[in-house]
Write a structure and sequence with these properties.
67 residues, mainly alpha, 3 helices
């Protein structure tokens, strides 16, 4: 659940914060993927590739920090 506090009636800033949090959590990506049917085999392959991409990114980040 995404929640944002509106400070001094600044709704525009709060809306930007909500959009940023939703983007980070992947809500927009899930909505986009839900527009069309995805075969289970394709879904499994996509999730595996996403996982591998995240692991490479994390590994690279860890290698950069150790230097």
């Amino acid at each position: 659940m995404v929640s944002v506090v509106v400070v001094n009636g600044n709704v525009d800033q709060a809306l930007r914060n909500v959009k940023k949090k939703m983007q980070k959590e992947g809500v927009f990506r899930e909505m986009k993927l839900g527009r069309h049917y995805e075969k289970p085999s394709v879904k499994k392959k996509r999730k595996q590739e996403e996982s591998e991409r995240r692991m490479r990114k994390l590994k690279k980040k860890m290698d950069d920090e150790s230097c």
